[in-house]
Fold this protein.
Amino acid sequence: MNIQGKTALVTGASRGIGRAIALQLAKQGMQCILLVARDQQQLTQVADEITAMGVKAVVLPLDLTQPIEVNMTLVKVWRDYGPIHLLINCAGVAYQTSFLHTRLPDIQHELTVNLMGMYTITRLIARRMAIHKQGTIVNVSSLMGKVAAPTMATYSATKFAIVGFTQALRSELAAHNIRVIALLPSLTDTDMVKNLDWFRWIIPLSPEKVAQVLVDGLRQNQTEIVVGWQSHLAVWCHRIFPSWVERAVAWAAPRPSQKPMQTRLKNIWAMLW
Ligand SMILES: NC(=O)c1ccc[n+]([C@@H]2O[C@H](COP(=O)([O-])OP(=O)(O)OC[C@H]3O[C@@H](n4cnc5c(N)ncnc54)[C@H](OP(=O)(O)O)[C@@H]3O)[C@@H](O)[C@H]2O)c1
């Protein structure tokens, strides 16, 4: 894809990987970047950085779990800023806990943001891209969308679903000249993982590295962009020796005993609740 002079909408642009992608797209010559997340103040800071590079940035404070709000905003966006050529679905949330102690509201929150939020905005934008007969959609999944992670069952389920959603859309929207791509980063050093117990041996990526690999992948017209050598190794091994990799992941997963006392008490409380 040629980025020059195009318009992109990036969800989850207030921080972490989404922010790094928005900045990287600006560096690569995108003409206009629409920034979506809930936190207006953080979005404005990102917009200021983009504007300083001479690129137009528009702040769209939106909660993706509110379809009516999303719909109304996008109608105005299309009217005011014209067609969106690139949609980056990056917003997401993650909880980590043993499944036996999972709280139902946390499960619902992960499903609603990671899946329903993505479907809502993709449906609205893909329809308009189809009318214009052009567009590219990038769905941010994860290495956990290929190799599921104990202690993060719902998160893994959403990321597997995103890979399936992406594959189905790719076939379906090809007739409308719309490309659909999955981005699969492994552990990346962002706010999302600050309070998680990390899996052993995983070396975190920087959000900037993820953004750089995405832009390279877009240029090379890749359909599934796996980020980092650890992810390539894990995906490749899982294809050939799935049960070995599952055993290795179970071994590398955080042990319940590694949780701080406060978290353990919270889990007991959740069980009682
Ligand atoms: N970090 C990792 O290790 C890692 C690895 C693989 C894949 N990923 C994926 O990469 C994506 C970005 O993750 P990250 O690490 O950058 O996380 P992050 O730093 O926590 O950022 C998450 C972003 O999602 C936005 N968001 C959350 N709920 C939202 C809602 N209801 N409506 C609109 N925006 C919402 C947040 O903005 P507001 O809070 O301002 O709304 C924020 O911009 C996620 O899809 C994640 O699953 C992350």
Q: What stands out?
A: The CA atoms of residues 242 and 248 lie 10 Å apart. The chain has ten helices and seven strands. The first helix runs from residue 16 to 27.
